[in-house]
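ligand=zinc ion
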Amino acid sequence: MICLNCGKDIGMGNKFCPNCGKPTTIADKENVGTIIVKRENKYVGSLINFDVFIDGEKVGKLGNGKTLTYDMPLGSYDVKLSAPGNNVVREVDLTVKNRTVEITIVCKMGMVTGKPYVKSVEYK
Ligand SMILES: [Zn+2]
């Protein structure tokens, strides 16, 4: 299977390209939604990057004040943010009426011991 985004041969069975991180399952533009994971810029936890997982697959790292965007086929997904010792998971539903969901993450705890929590989940 060839990644539609970066063109690498990525074998079979991957929902996300191991090379570029983009989803491999988008069939057509009619059935695509967007998951936005946004992290507020805070001094607290600023040195910690959160690992982002969608349906158990690691898809990126979320630094302080950064935003990651994933175009996905419509459907339900578990979005997990992970820091050492702490996880938060939200299930999101991308539908024809709610194609875009923005999850805003804030960091608690100390500068080097960040703990992610979900401030808001907003459908647009
Ligand atoms: Zn790729």
